[in-house]
Amino acid sequence: MLRPGGPFRFTLLLCAAVVVAATSANAESYFQLRKKVNANTVRIVTGSIEDTAFRIGADMSSVLDRGDDLRILPIMGKGSLQNVTDILYLKGVDLGIVQSDVLTYVRDRKIHKGLDRRLNYITKLYNEEFHLLARKQVRSLKELSGRRVNIGTPGSGSTVTASIVFQTLGVQINPTNYDQALALEMLRTGKIDAMVSVAAKPTDLLSTVRAEDGLHLLEIPRTPALLQTYLPGRLRPDDYPKLIPAGSEVETLSVGAVLAVFAWKEDTKRFRNVERFVNAFFDNIAEFQKAPRHRKWTEVSLQASVPGWTRFPASETWLQRRLALARSGSGGGQQDQQLQAAFKAFLEKEAPGLAEQMNQRQQDELFQRFLIWAKENQ
Questions:
Q1: Beta bridge partners of 217
Q2: How many CA atoms lie within 13 A of 81 on its CB side?
Q3: Is 202 exposed, middle or buried (0-12, 13-18, 19+ CB in 10 A)?
Q4: What is the pLDDT of residues 313-343, one digit of tens each?
Q5: Are 171 and 141 in contact, with CB atoms under 8 Å apart?
Q6: CATH of 40-328, one of 1.10.260.40, 3.40.50.720, 1.20.120.1560, 3.40.190.10
Q7: What is the pTM of this model?
Q8: Exposure class string for 155-166: b at 16+ Cβ within 10 A, else e
Q9: How far apart are CA 54 and CA 115, in angstroms?
Protein backbone atom coordinates (compact mmCIF):
# COMPACT_ATOMS: atom_id res chain seq x y z
CA MET A 1 0.00 0.00 0.00
CA LEU A 2 1.43 3.39 -1.12
CA ARG A 3 1.83 6.07 1.46
CA PRO A 4 0.84 9.69 0.59
CA GLY A 5 4.35 11.02 0.85
CA GLY A 6 7.78 10.89 -0.71
CA PRO A 7 7.95 10.06 -4.45
CA PHE A 8 4.16 9.54 -4.72
CA ARG A 9 3.40 13.04 -3.38
CA PHE A 10 5.95 14.53 -5.79
CA THR A 11 4.29 12.72 -8.70
CA LEU A 12 0.86 14.07 -7.74
CA LEU A 13 2.19 17.61 -7.52
CA LEU A 14 3.92 17.26 -10.90
CA CYS A 15 0.71 15.98 -12.54
CA ALA A 16 -1.27 18.80 -10.98
CA ALA A 17 1.23 21.34 -12.28
CA VAL A 18 1.00 19.89 -15.80
CA VAL A 19 -2.82 20.02 -15.69
CA VAL A 20 -2.80 23.61 -14.42
CA ALA A 21 -0.31 24.65 -17.09
CA ALA A 22 -2.30 22.95 -19.84
CA THR A 23 -5.54 24.48 -18.61
CA SER A 24 -3.97 27.92 -18.45
CA ALA A 25 -2.58 27.53 -21.97
CA ASN A 26 -5.96 26.42 -23.28
CA ALA A 27 -7.69 29.30 -21.51
CA GLU A 28 -5.21 31.77 -22.96
CA SER A 29 -5.64 30.29 -26.43
CA TYR A 30 -9.43 30.48 -26.06
CA PHE A 31 -9.45 34.14 -25.06
CA GLN A 32 -6.91 35.07 -27.74
CA LEU A 33 -8.98 33.34 -30.43
CA ARG A 34 -12.17 34.94 -29.13
CA LYS A 35 -10.56 38.38 -29.21
CA LYS A 36 -9.18 37.78 -32.70
CA VAL A 37 -12.52 36.64 -34.14
CA ASN A 38 -14.42 39.59 -32.70
CA ALA A 39 -11.82 42.31 -33.21
CA ASN A 40 -12.46 42.98 -36.89
CA THR A 41 -15.98 41.63 -37.38
CA VAL A 42 -18.72 44.08 -38.38
CA ARG A 43 -22.33 42.92 -38.00
CA ILE A 44 -24.96 44.44 -40.29
CA VAL A 45 -28.69 43.91 -39.75
CA THR A 46 -30.36 43.94 -43.19
CA GLY A 47 -33.84 42.76 -44.18
CA SER A 48 -35.91 39.66 -44.79
CA ILE A 49 -34.59 37.16 -47.31
CA GLU A 50 -36.68 38.56 -50.18
CA ASP A 51 -35.66 42.18 -49.51
CA THR A 52 -33.10 44.14 -51.52
CA ALA A 53 -31.39 44.99 -48.22
CA PHE A 54 -30.58 41.32 -47.62
CA ARG A 55 -28.88 41.04 -51.02
CA ILE A 56 -26.99 44.30 -50.41
CA GLY A 57 -25.67 42.89 -47.14
CA ALA A 58 -24.57 39.70 -48.88
CA ASP A 59 -22.72 41.76 -51.50
CA MET A 60 -20.91 43.65 -48.74
CA SER A 61 -19.73 40.38 -47.27
CA SER A 62 -18.57 39.05 -50.65
CA VAL A 63 -16.63 42.16 -51.66
CA LEU A 64 -15.20 43.35 -48.34
CA ASP A 65 -14.55 40.17 -46.34
CA ARG A 66 -10.81 39.88 -45.64
CA GLY A 67 -10.81 37.06 -43.12
CA ASP A 68 -9.02 38.05 -39.92
CA ASP A 69 -8.46 41.62 -41.17
CA LEU A 70 -12.14 42.41 -41.81
CA ARG A 71 -15.18 40.17 -41.67
CA ILE A 72 -18.68 41.30 -42.65
CA LEU A 73 -21.51 39.39 -40.99
CA PRO A 74 -24.98 40.17 -42.43
CA ILE A 75 -27.95 39.50 -40.15
CA MET A 76 -31.52 39.01 -41.34
CA GLY A 77 -33.67 41.90 -40.11
CA LYS A 78 -37.37 42.62 -39.55
CA GLY A 79 -37.86 46.06 -41.07
CA SER A 80 -36.63 49.61 -40.60
CA LEU A 81 -38.14 50.25 -37.19
CA GLN A 82 -36.82 47.02 -35.66
CA ASN A 83 -33.43 47.60 -37.29
CA VAL A 84 -33.18 50.98 -35.56
CA THR A 85 -33.97 49.33 -32.23
CA ASP A 86 -31.34 46.66 -32.91
CA ILE A 87 -28.67 49.26 -33.73
CA LEU A 88 -29.45 51.10 -30.50
CA TYR A 89 -29.81 48.17 -28.11
CA LEU A 90 -28.95 44.73 -29.54
CA LYS A 91 -25.54 43.58 -28.38
CA GLY A 92 -23.06 43.05 -31.20
CA VAL A 93 -24.94 44.91 -33.96
CA ASP A 94 -22.77 47.59 -35.55
CA LEU A 95 -24.74 48.74 -38.61
CA GLY A 96 -28.18 48.45 -40.12
CA ILE A 97 -29.98 49.21 -43.39
CA VAL A 98 -33.03 51.40 -42.73
CA GLN A 99 -35.25 53.75 -44.70
CA SER A 100 -34.35 57.43 -44.46
CA ASP A 101 -37.86 58.40 -43.33
CA VAL A 102 -37.63 56.28 -40.18
CA LEU A 103 -36.27 59.30 -38.27
CA THR A 104 -39.43 61.27 -39.09
CA TYR A 105 -41.61 58.34 -38.06
CA VAL A 106 -39.78 57.74 -34.78
CA ARG A 107 -39.58 61.44 -33.90
CA ASP A 108 -43.29 62.08 -34.52
CA ARG A 109 -44.28 59.08 -32.40
CA LYS A 110 -41.64 59.67 -29.68
CA ILE A 111 -40.47 56.04 -29.85
CA HIS A 112 -36.75 56.56 -29.09
CA LYS A 113 -35.74 59.70 -27.23
CA GLY A 114 -32.85 61.71 -28.61
CA LEU A 115 -32.56 59.53 -31.71
CA ASP A 116 -31.08 62.38 -33.78
CA ARG A 117 -28.04 62.38 -31.48
CA ARG A 118 -27.75 58.60 -31.16
CA LEU A 119 -27.98 57.53 -34.78
CA ASN A 120 -25.70 58.52 -37.68
CA TYR A 121 -25.51 57.41 -41.29
CA ILE A 122 -22.52 56.13 -43.20
CA THR A 123 -23.96 56.61 -46.68
CA LYS A 124 -27.15 56.76 -48.65
CA LEU A 125 -27.44 53.45 -50.49
CA TYR A 126 -30.27 53.17 -53.02
CA ASN A 127 -33.88 54.19 -53.54
CA GLU A 128 -36.99 52.16 -52.84
CA GLU A 129 -40.16 53.07 -54.68
CA PHE A 130 -43.61 53.58 -53.17
CA HIS A 131 -45.95 51.11 -54.92
CA LEU A 132 -49.67 51.66 -54.31
CA LEU A 133 -51.56 48.81 -55.97
CA ALA A 134 -55.34 49.09 -56.00
CA ARG A 135 -58.43 47.57 -57.55
CA LYS A 136 -59.54 49.13 -60.84
CA GLN A 137 -62.62 50.67 -59.21
CA VAL A 138 -60.32 52.92 -57.14
CA ARG A 139 -59.21 55.71 -59.49
CA SER A 140 -57.09 57.88 -57.19
CA LEU A 141 -55.35 57.86 -53.83
CA LYS A 142 -58.01 60.14 -52.29
CA GLU A 143 -60.69 57.56 -53.07
CA LEU A 144 -59.00 55.26 -50.54
CA SER A 145 -60.37 57.34 -47.67
CA GLY A 146 -62.18 54.97 -45.30
CA ARG A 147 -61.20 51.89 -47.34
CA ARG A 148 -59.12 48.88 -46.30
CA VAL A 149 -55.50 49.40 -47.32
CA ASN A 150 -52.72 47.02 -46.35
CA ILE A 151 -49.61 48.92 -45.25
CA GLY A 152 -47.40 45.96 -44.33
CA THR A 153 -46.42 44.17 -41.15
CA PRO A 154 -45.85 46.32 -38.03
CA GLY A 155 -42.44 48.01 -38.03
CA SER A 156 -41.75 47.31 -41.70
CA GLY A 157 -40.49 49.97 -44.07
CA SER A 158 -43.79 49.90 -45.95
CA THR A 159 -45.69 50.63 -42.74
CA VAL A 160 -43.38 53.52 -41.84
CA THR A 161 -43.63 55.20 -45.25
CA ALA A 162 -47.34 54.53 -45.78
CA SER A 163 -48.18 56.02 -42.38
CA ILE A 164 -46.28 59.21 -43.19
CA VAL A 165 -47.62 59.55 -46.76
CA PHE A 166 -51.31 59.05 -45.92
CA GLN A 167 -51.06 61.29 -42.85
CA THR A 168 -49.31 64.05 -44.82
CA LEU A 169 -51.93 63.90 -47.58
CA GLY A 170 -54.78 63.86 -45.06
CA VAL A 171 -56.24 60.56 -46.32
CA GLN A 172 -57.67 58.48 -43.47
CA ILE A 173 -57.54 54.85 -44.53
CA ASN A 174 -58.59 51.71 -42.68
CA PRO A 175 -55.13 50.12 -42.35
CA THR A 176 -54.40 46.38 -42.25
CA ASN A 177 -51.06 44.72 -41.43
CA TYR A 178 -50.83 41.51 -43.44
CA ASP A 179 -47.62 40.28 -45.02
CA GLN A 180 -47.22 41.29 -48.66
CA ALA A 181 -47.93 37.91 -50.28
CA LEU A 182 -51.15 37.45 -48.31
CA ALA A 183 -52.18 41.06 -48.97
CA LEU A 184 -51.82 40.57 -52.72
CA GLU A 185 -54.07 37.52 -52.61
CA MET A 186 -56.63 39.43 -50.53
CA LEU A 187 -56.49 42.31 -53.00
CA ARG A 188 -57.18 39.98 -55.91
CA THR A 189 -60.22 38.54 -54.13
CA GLY A 190 -61.57 41.93 -53.07
CA LYS A 191 -61.05 41.53 -49.32
CA ILE A 192 -58.99 44.72 -49.27
CA ASP A 193 -59.05 47.71 -51.64
CA ALA A 194 -55.35 48.48 -52.00
CA MET A 195 -51.90 47.60 -50.72
CA VAL A 196 -48.64 49.48 -50.21
CA SER A 197 -45.27 47.96 -50.99
CA VAL A 198 -42.15 50.06 -50.51
CA ALA A 199 -39.45 48.15 -52.33
CA ALA A 200 -36.74 48.57 -54.91
CA LYS A 201 -38.26 48.30 -58.37
CA PRO A 202 -38.96 45.95 -59.95
CA THR A 203 -40.11 43.94 -56.96
CA ASP A 204 -40.68 40.23 -57.61
CA LEU A 205 -44.06 40.34 -55.87
CA LEU A 206 -45.59 42.84 -58.29
CA SER A 207 -43.86 41.37 -61.33
CA THR A 208 -46.47 38.61 -61.24
CA VAL A 209 -49.41 41.05 -61.40
CA ARG A 210 -51.19 41.65 -64.72
CA ALA A 211 -53.54 44.42 -65.76
CA GLU A 212 -56.04 41.65 -66.58
CA ASP A 213 -56.22 40.88 -62.85
CA GLY A 214 -58.29 44.04 -62.38
CA LEU A 215 -55.50 45.84 -60.54
CA HIS A 216 -53.46 48.95 -61.30
CA LEU A 217 -50.84 51.24 -59.75
CA LEU A 218 -52.04 54.59 -58.42
CA GLU A 219 -50.09 57.82 -58.76
CA ILE A 220 -48.85 59.60 -55.62
CA PRO A 221 -49.14 63.41 -55.52
CA ARG A 222 -45.73 65.07 -55.22
CA THR A 223 -46.63 67.78 -52.77
CA PRO A 224 -44.01 70.17 -51.31
CA ALA A 225 -44.66 68.66 -47.86
CA LEU A 226 -43.84 65.14 -49.09
CA LEU A 227 -40.79 66.34 -51.03
CA GLN A 228 -39.25 67.49 -47.77
CA THR A 229 -38.80 63.82 -46.92
CA TYR A 230 -39.03 61.93 -50.21
CA LEU A 231 -37.70 62.06 -53.76
CA PRO A 232 -39.85 61.94 -56.90
CA GLY A 233 -39.97 58.52 -58.53
CA ARG A 234 -41.46 56.88 -61.61
CA LEU A 235 -42.69 53.40 -62.42
CA ARG A 236 -42.34 52.54 -66.10
CA PRO A 237 -43.49 49.76 -68.46
CA ASP A 238 -40.00 48.22 -68.47
CA ASP A 239 -40.31 47.89 -64.66
CA TYR A 240 -43.68 46.10 -64.83
CA PRO A 241 -44.49 45.24 -68.46
CA LYS A 242 -47.55 43.15 -67.51
CA LEU A 243 -49.04 45.91 -65.38
CA ILE A 244 -48.13 49.30 -66.91
CA PRO A 245 -49.25 49.94 -70.52
CA ALA A 246 -46.58 50.86 -73.06
CA GLY A 247 -46.06 54.59 -73.43
CA SER A 248 -47.36 55.45 -69.95
CA GLU A 249 -45.74 56.08 -66.58
CA VAL A 250 -46.87 56.17 -62.96
CA GLU A 251 -45.59 59.06 -60.87
CA THR A 252 -44.73 58.07 -57.33
CA LEU A 253 -42.26 58.75 -54.53
CA SER A 254 -39.02 57.07 -53.58
CA VAL A 255 -37.39 56.76 -50.19
CA GLY A 256 -33.69 56.28 -49.60
CA ALA A 257 -32.21 53.22 -47.96
CA VAL A 258 -29.55 54.36 -45.50
CA LEU A 259 -26.65 52.50 -43.94
CA ALA A 260 -27.12 53.58 -40.32
CA VAL A 261 -24.76 53.28 -37.36
CA PHE A 262 -24.78 54.09 -33.67
CA ALA A 263 -23.10 57.43 -32.96
CA TRP A 264 -20.01 55.98 -31.30
CA LYS A 265 -17.50 58.31 -29.67
CA GLU A 266 -14.25 58.59 -31.60
CA ASP A 267 -12.09 57.25 -28.76
CA THR A 268 -13.91 53.89 -28.53
CA LYS A 269 -13.07 50.49 -29.99
CA ARG A 270 -16.47 50.26 -31.68
CA PHE A 271 -15.81 53.54 -33.50
CA ARG A 272 -12.46 52.29 -34.75
CA ASN A 273 -14.04 49.04 -35.90
CA VAL A 274 -16.68 50.88 -37.92
CA GLU A 275 -14.03 53.29 -39.21
CA ARG A 276 -12.09 50.33 -40.60
CA PHE A 277 -15.26 49.18 -42.37
CA VAL A 278 -15.98 52.66 -43.77
CA ASN A 279 -12.51 52.99 -45.29
CA ALA A 280 -12.69 49.55 -46.90
CA PHE A 281 -16.25 50.10 -48.13
CA PHE A 282 -15.64 53.55 -49.64
CA ASP A 283 -12.30 52.52 -51.17
CA ASN A 284 -13.99 49.63 -52.98
CA ILE A 285 -17.28 51.24 -54.01
CA ALA A 286 -16.52 50.70 -57.71
CA GLU A 287 -16.37 46.93 -57.16
CA PHE A 288 -19.99 46.93 -55.99
CA GLN A 289 -21.13 48.46 -59.27
CA LYS A 290 -19.86 45.55 -61.36
CA ALA A 291 -21.64 42.30 -62.22
CA PRO A 292 -22.82 40.10 -60.55
CA ARG A 293 -23.65 42.58 -57.75
CA HIS A 294 -27.18 43.92 -57.34
CA ARG A 295 -28.04 46.58 -59.91
CA LYS A 296 -29.14 48.99 -57.15
CA TRP A 297 -25.45 49.59 -56.36
CA THR A 298 -25.33 51.85 -59.42
CA GLU A 299 -27.55 54.33 -57.52
CA VAL A 300 -25.11 54.77 -54.65
CA SER A 301 -23.53 58.22 -54.40
CA LEU A 302 -21.23 58.41 -51.40
CA GLN A 303 -21.41 62.21 -51.23
CA ALA A 304 -25.22 62.36 -51.22
CA SER A 305 -26.57 63.91 -48.03
CA VAL A 306 -29.64 62.64 -46.18
CA PRO A 307 -31.95 65.40 -44.87
CA GLY A 308 -32.39 65.26 -41.10
CA TRP A 309 -29.49 62.84 -40.58
CA THR A 310 -25.93 63.38 -39.33
CA ARG A 311 -23.10 61.76 -41.24
CA PHE A 312 -20.79 59.43 -39.28
CA PRO A 313 -17.46 61.24 -38.63
CA ALA A 314 -15.35 58.53 -40.30
CA SER A 315 -17.44 58.86 -43.48
CA GLU A 316 -17.08 62.64 -43.46
CA THR A 317 -13.32 62.32 -42.99
CA TRP A 318 -13.00 59.96 -45.96
CA LEU A 319 -15.08 62.25 -48.20
CA GLN A 320 -13.14 65.35 -47.23
CA ARG A 321 -9.86 63.55 -47.89
CA ARG A 322 -11.10 62.43 -51.32
CA LEU A 323 -12.35 65.94 -52.12
CA ALA A 324 -8.95 67.40 -51.24
CA LEU A 325 -7.26 64.90 -53.59
CA ALA A 326 -9.69 65.72 -56.39
CA ARG A 327 -9.06 69.46 -56.03
CA SER A 328 -5.31 68.97 -56.13
CA GLY A 329 -5.55 66.93 -59.35
CA SER A 330 -5.57 68.29 -62.92
CA GLY A 331 -8.73 68.69 -64.99
CA GLY A 332 -11.08 68.27 -62.05
CA GLY A 333 -12.66 71.69 -62.43
CA GLN A 334 -13.69 71.17 -66.05
CA GLN A 335 -15.11 67.74 -65.25
CA ASP A 336 -17.11 69.21 -62.35
CA GLN A 337 -18.60 71.85 -64.67
CA GLN A 338 -19.60 69.19 -67.19
CA LEU A 339 -21.26 67.12 -64.46
CA GLN A 340 -23.14 70.15 -63.16
CA ALA A 341 -24.43 71.01 -66.65
CA ALA A 342 -25.51 67.43 -67.24
CA PHE A 343 -27.19 67.29 -63.85
CA LYS A 344 -29.13 70.47 -64.61
CA ALA A 345 -30.36 68.90 -67.85
CA PHE A 346 -31.35 65.79 -65.90
CA LEU A 347 -33.42 67.85 -63.45
CA GLU A 348 -35.22 69.68 -66.24
CA LYS A 349 -36.14 66.39 -67.93
CA GLU A 350 -36.80 64.15 -64.95
CA ALA A 351 -38.55 66.61 -62.62
CA PRO A 352 -39.65 69.72 -64.54
CA GLY A 353 -40.67 72.56 -62.26
CA LEU A 354 -39.58 70.75 -59.11
CA ALA A 355 -36.02 72.08 -59.01
CA GLU A 356 -37.30 75.52 -58.01
CA GLN A 357 -39.09 73.98 -55.01
CA MET A 358 -36.03 72.08 -53.77
CA ASN A 359 -33.09 73.34 -51.78
CA GLN A 360 -29.53 72.31 -52.58
CA ARG A 361 -29.62 69.44 -50.13
CA GLN A 362 -32.68 67.93 -51.78
CA GLN A 363 -31.11 68.34 -55.21
CA ASP A 364 -28.04 66.50 -53.95
CA GLU A 365 -30.35 63.62 -53.09
CA LEU A 366 -31.30 63.34 -56.76
CA PHE A 367 -27.71 62.87 -57.80
CA GLN A 368 -27.75 59.08 -57.70
CA ARG A 369 -30.75 59.03 -60.05
CA PHE A 370 -28.87 61.37 -62.35
CA LEU A 371 -26.07 58.80 -62.62
CA ILE A 372 -28.55 56.21 -63.90
CA TRP A 373 -30.16 58.69 -66.32
CA ALA A 374 -26.74 59.72 -67.69
CA LYS A 375 -25.78 56.10 -68.24
CA GLU A 376 -29.02 55.38 -70.12
CA ASN A 377 -28.57 58.44 -72.35
CA GLN A 378 -24.95 58.02 -73.34
A1: 133
A2: 19
A3: middle
A4: 999 999 888 877 765 654 444 445 555 666 6
A5: yes
A6: 3.40.190.10
A7: 0.74
A8: bbbbbbbbbbbb
A9: 24
